[in-house]
TrEMBL record:
Protein name: GntR family transcriptional regulator
Annotated PANTHER family: TRANSCRIPTIONAL REGULATOR, GNTR FAMILY, TRANSCRIPTIONAL REGULATORY PROTEIN
Domain of life of the organism encoding this protein: Bacteria
Organism, scientific name: Amycolatopsis rhabdoformis
Keywords: DNA-binding, Transcription, Transcription regulation
Keyword RNA-binding attributed: no
Domain HTH gntR-type: 6-73
Pfam families (UniProt xref): FCD (PF07729), GntR (PF00392)
Length: 221
């Protein structure tokens, strides 16, 4: 039975998104449509549609007469993305925090316990995203959440680079900020939670800007 075109396109888009977010496809990598179609045992049409989906999410750049590339950022673009997160993410927290239950906050502490037990960068990235979006899970601001999901996706590579650069001292700071955020949420001190979150995001932005080597992309083959 043939798979509907829309379903096939979304399947390819999901697979490519996963490869980009987990670092298998780095910024600046060219995506060869024919090779991908053969690998995934599909036709070129779902691949083309999948690339358009990912272009709309900022993960792929389509260039006329050149093809598809994993989107890369320069320092200014990444800094702007983080400035947007600094301003918008506390707003999403404010939309969700009043509805967080004690069980939700217990779950946050359990996630943070797992973060503090791992020294694996990829596991940290998964858990860190899980922690933040558990904070936001009760929002009713879907357009805002969509913007922030896109910003999380498009900066994932640079967040990975930051964690690898961070070293134990800075990792300790990340964990301490998480604990302060959870404590403020448990106390229902939402204004403090918003401030802690803003500073948490800002510190990453400042660190990244101080490491321009993170933004180097491989030369085209």
């Amino acid at each position: 039975m043939a798979v509907p075109a829309g379903v096939a396109s979304q399947r390819v888009a999901d697979e490519l998104r996963e490869r980009i977010l987990d670092g298998r496809l780095a910024p600046g990598t060219r995506i060869i449509q024919d090779e991908l179609a053969e690998e995934l045992r599909t036709s070129r049409l779902p691949v083309r549609e999948a690339l358009r989906i990912l272009e709309s999410r900022g993960l792929v750049t389509l260039r006329a007469n050149s093809g598809a590339w994993v989107t890369s950022m320069d320092v200014r673009e990444c800094e702007l993305s983080y400035k947007m997160r600094e301003r918008l993410e506390p707003l999403l927290l404010a939309e969700s925090a009043p509805r967080l239950s004690d069980e939700d906050i217990d779950e946050l502490e359990a996630i943070e316990d797992r973060i503090e037990r791992t020294d694996d960068v990829e596991e940290f990235l998964v858990l860190d995203r899980q922690l933040h979006w558990t904070v936001y899970r009760h929002h009713d601001a879907h357009d805002l959440a969509a913007i922030l999901n896109r910003l999380w996706d498009t900066t994932q590579h640079y967040r990975r680079a930051f964690i690898r650069l961070a070293g134990e001292r800075r990792n300790w700071i990340i964990r301490a900020e998480h604990r302060l955020l959870i404590e403020a949420l448990r106390k229902r001190d939402h204004p403090s939670a918003e401030q802690i979150l803003e500073l948490h995001i800002r510190r990453t932005r400042v660190e990244l800007v101080n490491h321009p080597e993170v933004f180097a992309v491989p030369a085209p083959s």
